[in-house]
Write a sequence for this structure.
């Protein structure tokens, strides 16, 4: 077993619901609390298991909503109570990661934090480990470091990171500067990026000294920074925390870390990237879930659900079964069937992005009990 | 209100499960106990309501399985107890209709019976009424009479009846002899029949004097005839019936009335036909159920189920909802979704005929609890 990395703290923001995976993902059962790969455990637990060898179980923090506290503690029995940072309401990723940075830097001034989403799917633990170790080495030099995934296809579903000049960093032979971040491209542009090879997928992983990260927030989002300082000051004082959270958190700037930190830092030459040669997917919708579970074999029917009772004939796509009903699927291609106790979805991979529209429609029509 | 027809008894064989409509139709909830048109009542009740003006509520008999007795009595509170003929096990249509004929002729030697399936959909009550009255008039002359439906398309899903010479029958201006019966044709042949106009769909309706019908059975199926006589002799004697049923019914010849009566009678010039100018469908599978409920509009999504909560976007086909789950359907065409408490079917109209294969597979794999 390799040793945990010195001064390193892993942070798991466990926030998003994953509306495009409704009715599997819900407000009370968000994406990170599901097993989306048939591994037998939740994505959150998979994330923990990936990070434990890098940070040690005492040095993993989870930022999550109050409603998910019990589920998180059930999934991660090893997480110290002091490392579960509860949000009273979601305020986007800069607030979540910034809060963790502010609390941890107060505990340990030299801490290096790495933020890894709770609901991504990664395969290739050793390669992941190596990428994070390089990223931490790069962060130690004062860079904010991200891990970018070499594209395996011209995806229009992810943002891209363009690599710039190589960096010379001890322990990080693949480190390079980031030239720029780009939003999800159209197919034409994605094909150009894919051919270019200097573009990597933005997997939303950020590794930095906590003080460097907070400094970047201070420069770009001073109001957010001030709020985080107030929160961190009171956080580890049980009596003081509550009132400060109640006062400050609702006013915290809602902004993604990409805009508050990564893009401005890239412009200033402070952002580095390590290529991550592992399989990665953010499983953003049922099309990617199907692809992930059929391993790209387009004529397969993937089945998710430990009590699934499926009778399939000449069909492809994915069936997600959360009930113990018999599900019979005959002659349907690229189908997406999600069978839960109180809601059923039937669509195709092609229309997977439209699921969010259903969730919006359910909200509008007041059927919140199934959201 | 027109008067009921003299000497007429309507018989409703309520037997088949309708396996091609699984998981809606089940052993314990066969097709005739469902509302397949959104009328608000079962097909069996629809059938009763169609026949009551023709026969009177005291003169309608139902032949059904012992397991369905309670359901039949619930659906048809007006049916006299003595007119519910219970089969201990299904022995096909000649036995069911023959049993009714044998019992009724013993009660009334001159009775004319008309047999009408419990699970067909008919629209156009007045035209139906007129066809039956013509058929009874023809039966009174000693013919076995059927009602054939002028095809509205070259269907390969039904058998056909070829009309022969016209008959001169008082009260039946449309009566004609039947030249022959033909099995479900291929598409080429169906198109030829459709163009010819002398071919009618075989809707499985038979109207005849009970003694004539039994005479035909005696000629063609003497073993069946003997069994029916034994049963009828004992039937209306409560003490005698049980032992005779137990002894005779399991040995009764299993044969469809088409083979035992209609085809041989047609060959001998004893079968007549009245064209039925009403909308008729046997709703043999989900493709016909979808068509029936979208009224043939191919880009509509039909919804069946009184508590259905459907959110549909850019979809066509049919959703049958027997639960109160929210069902979201996005971007699927000609889809068939049947949502029941313990089983879910997803297929397309094109593959509707393959549903029976699922039922067979469920039997083979021992999952009888959902059949």
């Amino acid at each position: 077993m390799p040793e945990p990395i010195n001064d390193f703290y892993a942070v798991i923001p466990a926030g998003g619901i994953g509306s495009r995976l409704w009715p599997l993902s819900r407000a009370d059962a968000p994406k990170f609390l599901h097993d989306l790969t048939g591994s037998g455990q939740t994505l959150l637990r998979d994330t923990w298991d990936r990070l434990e060898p890098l940070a040690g179980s005492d040095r993993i923090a989870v930022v999550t909503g109050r409603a998910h506290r019990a589920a998180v503690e059930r999934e991660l029995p090893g997480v110290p109570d002091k490392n579960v940072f509860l949000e009273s309401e979601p305020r986007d990723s800069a607030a979540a990661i910034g809060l963790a940075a502010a609390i941890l830097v107060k505990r340990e001034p030299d801490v290096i934090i790495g933020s890894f989403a709770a609901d991504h799917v990664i395969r290739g633990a050793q390669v992941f480990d190596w990428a994070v170790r390089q990223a931490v080495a790069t962060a130690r030099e004062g860079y904010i470091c991200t891990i970018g995934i070499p594209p395996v296809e011209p995806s229009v579903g992810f943002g891209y990171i363009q690599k710039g000049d190589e960096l010379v960093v001890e322990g990080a032979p693949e480190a390079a500067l980031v030239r720029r971040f780009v939003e999800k491209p159209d197919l034409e542009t994605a094909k150009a990026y894919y051919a270019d090879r200097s573009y990597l997928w933005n997997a939303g992983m950020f590794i930095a000294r906590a003080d460097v990260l907070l400094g970047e927030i201070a420069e770009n989002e001073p109001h957010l920074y001030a709020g985080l300082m107030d929160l961190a000051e009171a956080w580890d004082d049980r009596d003081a925390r509550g009132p400060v959270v109640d006062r400050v958190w609702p006013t915290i700037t809602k902004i993604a870390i990409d805009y508050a930190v990564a893009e401005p830092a890239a412009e200033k030459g402070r952002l580095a990237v390590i290529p991550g040669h592992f399989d990665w997917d953010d499983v953003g919708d049922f099309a990617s879930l199907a692809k992930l579970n059929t391993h790209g074999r387009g004529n397969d029917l993937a089945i998710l659900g430990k009590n699934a009772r499926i009778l399939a004939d000449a069909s492809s796509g994915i069936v997600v079964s959360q009930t113990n009903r018999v599900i019979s699927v005959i002659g349907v291609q690229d189908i997406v069937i999600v069978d839960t106790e109180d809601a059923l979805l039937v669509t195709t991979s092609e229309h997977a992005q439209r699921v969010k529209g259903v969730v919006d429609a359910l909200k509008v029509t007041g059927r919140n009990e199934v959201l």
